[in-house]
Amino acid sequence: MQPRTLGLAAFVLAIAAIPLLPVPNFWITQLNYIGLYALVALGLVLLTGVGGLTSFGQAAFAGIGAYSSAWLCTAQGLSPWLGLLAGLLLTGAVALVLGWVTLRMSGHYLPLATIAWSLALFFTMGNLDALGKYDGLLGVPPITLFGFSFQAERRIYALIWAAALGGAIAVLHLLDSRPGRVMRALNLARGGGTTMPEAMGASTFRHKVLMFVIAALLASVSGWLFAHMQRSVNPSPFGIKFGIEYLFMAVLGGVGSVWGAFTGAALVKLTEDQLQVLLPKLIGTAGSYEIIVFGIVLVMVLKFAPDGVWPLLERWLPRRRARRALGEAQPLPARDKPQRGEPLLEAKAVRKAFGGLVAVNDISFTVRAGDIVGLIGPNGAGKSTTFNLVSGVLPLTSGEVWLRGQRVDGLPSREVARRGMSRTFQHVKLVPDMTVLENVALGTYLRTRTGALAAMLRLNGAEERRAMHEAAQQLARVGLAEFGDELAGNLALGPQRLVEIARALASDPALLLLDEPAAGLRHKEKQALAAVLRQLKAEGLSLLLVEHDMDFVMNLTDRIVVMEFGTRLIEGTPAEVQASPAVRAAYLGTEH
Length: 592
Ligand code: ADP
Ligand code: MG
Description:
This protein has helices at residues 3-17, 25-50, 58-75, 80-102, 109-127, 153-175, 178-184, 195-199, 204-230, 240-253, 258-283, 290-304, 310-314, 383-390, 413-418, 436-441, 452-456, 461-477, 493-505, 523-538, 550-554, 574-579, 581-591, and strands spanning 137-138, 144-145, 148-149, 232-233, 343-354, 357-368, 372-376, 398-403, 406-407, 421-423, 511-515, 542-547, 559-564, 567-572. The chain is of the alpha/beta class. It has 3 domains: 34-239, no CATH class; 339-420 and 509-592, Rossmann fold; 432-507, no CATH class. Strands 10-11-12-7-13-14 form a 6-stranded mixed β-sheet, with helices on both faces. A 4-stranded antiparallel β-sheet has the order 6-5-8-9, with helices on one face. The chain has a two-stranded antiparallel ribbon with strand order 1-4. It is elongated, with a radius of gyration of 28 Å. The protein starts with a helix and ends with a helix. Adenosine-5'-diphosphate (ADP) is lined by residues 354, 357, 359, 377, 379-385.
């Protein structure tokens, strides 16, 4: 077992032992609150830390969990367990609708929508007679299971911490899985985005909605436990103030890690109580002065420890060792390969106008199976745009794109990927804080099936092994076998480009598209890249290579299409292209 896993086991044991020890009840109460807060903050680690999305509405989701169960138990006399189920269903439905409406739009709509949602729910709770208005609902029964009542502090403690630790472990499992790798690739603040995961075949919109729903459900469970611990509910703990406080906890503790949620919850709970006693004494009047202190603390934390407090504590813990002893595993399903010479990719008069600028002017070309075709031209010729048109990243102004006899223009890039096209990016798009192997495993997305629930329950072991095995094989294919456990962000540009090629290969493509793979590489790195491409060609792979460097493509390609100012200058064999005065003029005219 890893030292790291042992550390977790020791923590779980300590948490389990505390209520059995003769500690004062006050401690248990504090720990109960910390567990409840951590459960909500955990959702924000997933949403904000991993996905780069912000929500002020987590307290409101806790409110749904609390009120659903409280109302069903008091007004309808139902069991708290049915209350839990109803709360989760209602929370899931609300989160789904909010996410569905706002997450298609740019980043600011979600936080705004969650603020509006918090306010709306707060006033609804406060004004509905059935929910007891601002007094809330009293006489909420304790949770019972087979006659065992979780009423006493030390008993509900067990439920709260089982939920909090279970939630933490489920989120850890999720992040280390097929959907989790997509989620980790989304964070704009950490160099992520939607283009790359979409090109790997994943719907980024669905993954964002999923993260939002999971975060809301975690909050809902916290609210449910809270309602039955308090034995009453009222609107105040579910308003926007607490929505902000949860975000504060997550940021203070560290949104980059699941344990940051626990650190933040503990720090806030423990200092809040001290401050609530101390500050009014110091200032001389009563009031929520702790908010001011928290504001100052948040500014300090963001300045001096932008990743929160947990990473500072984590330095004292044993380092996480890269796991994954890579044994044999069954290969992932493979697609049927095209026949040599069969037309793979056909661009028919594709055109792209950006306003008045025609960046790609009726370009046509064909890539046949087994060929390496180069698309070259000086900077600004329209190569990347053409590339984005055929791979579904940009919509066409006119023209058609066919892949293996199917029309693919108008399809999103993930659908084009599904039909067998895989690509790399001119500006490398790796997830820097994921290992090289995990980055390559992103490429297996379309060949695997695990969903979020299966991942959280760790039912994906066999498939993960197969995906990691495939990733390791593709990494070996580009000559980086020994770099699998390195963080992708630590590699130089040359190896990073090779990792992108391995990731594209992991999708078992019929056609591989490379956008300026040699750009920015040093001479040695270029040679290594050329060797890899030559080997892929020998293995029969079909390639479309967009390149600015003419020398680089000359010895590699079967055919070359030369572009200038959006139009096709010439198409021919490398020798023909090299001999063409027009090409020389285009390159000499703009290059030197
Ligand atoms: P290349 O990859 O050959 O260097 P690009 O395809 O990137 O060229 O660009 C072709 C032309 O289209 C350039 O003049 C560029 O400024 C323009 N262009 C590219 N993308 C956009 C865009 N999103 N909006 C407006 N103009 C663009
Ligand atoms: Mg370009």
